[in-house]
Amino acid sequence: MASNTPDRILDAALVSFGSRGYEATSLDALAEGLGVRKQSILYWFPSKEALLEALIDRSAADLAAALETALAGAGDGWDRVEAVVRSVFRVAARRPELLGLVREVGRLGPPAATRLTLTLEPLVARASAFLEAEMAAGHMRRHEPRLLLLAIYSTVVGMITEVEVLRVLGEEPTAKSLVRRREEILRLLRSALLVPAGGDAHESTGPVQRPPGAFGGV
Rounded distance, CA 148 to CA 28, Å? Predict the structure, then answer.
């Protein structure tokens, strides 16, 4: 955990909001777990809502940085899609509380979900432009880019959410199970997105379908 107080508070809130839920977490409980007074939390974050807002901003920046790092070493076309999926699964394995928070924010809805969406908007805009260019070049099937991104997001996060549900129930996912889920997602997306040799990029296969058993998107 970080040594300075604001980061320590954010770290503790991330774990609790991402696992127990926002409503189920009290500032008193956070303070007790940190070994500080509640007033110490309120000094840095005037309210529980302000704490959530700061946590959303930091978590969105962390997630964006992870994706940027993955893309920096990726090639073109499908390689970039695969790099993003692999990056998200790495986050799920190393920092499950981060994706747990993303799921929780989606469940909470506005204004928290709106704040997360706006923070990630530059990344979404770049991803939409990339997909549009790939479709225009005939490399990927024709879909509406933002709806396609939403479908991909729902599918990937849905698969990872299942892992988180298992963890809450006491069944710790293994590295092998995460790899299997990741490869299932990549096969699904490759089939739905890529135009086969001699195929027509304008023949849409419809929205990306979530695999059986996957939970809905957040």
Answer: 42
Write down the pLDDT at residue 213.
Answer: 35
- Residue bearing tokens 């880019």: 145
DSSP lists the bridge partners of residue 125 as none
User: Domains in the chain, ordered, with CATH?
Assistant: 56-193 (1.10.357.10)
Contacts of 95 (CB under 8 A, 6+ apart): 62
Apex 216 CA angle, 212 and 218, nearest 5? 155
* Residue pair 84/152 in contact by the 8 Å Cβ criterion: no
- 207 DSSP assignment: S
pLDDT in tens, 127-137: 999 999 999 99
Q: What is the dihedral of CA 8, 10, 12, 15, to 10 degrees?
A: -140
The residue length of the chain stands at 218
